[in-house]
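sry for the spam today, last one i promise. struct tokens for design, 51 residues
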């Protein structure tokens, strides 16, 4: 999905090698939304819930 590896140089990782989620979501927003059909994380499926 990503065009290049996450790294410190492209500011997608911190110096302690943690992923900068806000940067990743900004860079890949259109791709992420495309995966979820524009529904994002707030999508509620239709139908009854079964537990």
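last one done:
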């Amino acid at each position: 999905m990503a065009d290049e590896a996450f790294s410190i140089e492209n500011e997608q990782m911190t110096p302690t090698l943690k992923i900068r989620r806000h940067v990743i979501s900004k860079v890949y927003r259109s791709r992420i939304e495309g995966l979820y059909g524009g529904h994002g994380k707030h999508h509620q499926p239709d139908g009854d819930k079964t537990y």
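The two ends are 33 Å apart (CA to CA). ok im logging off now
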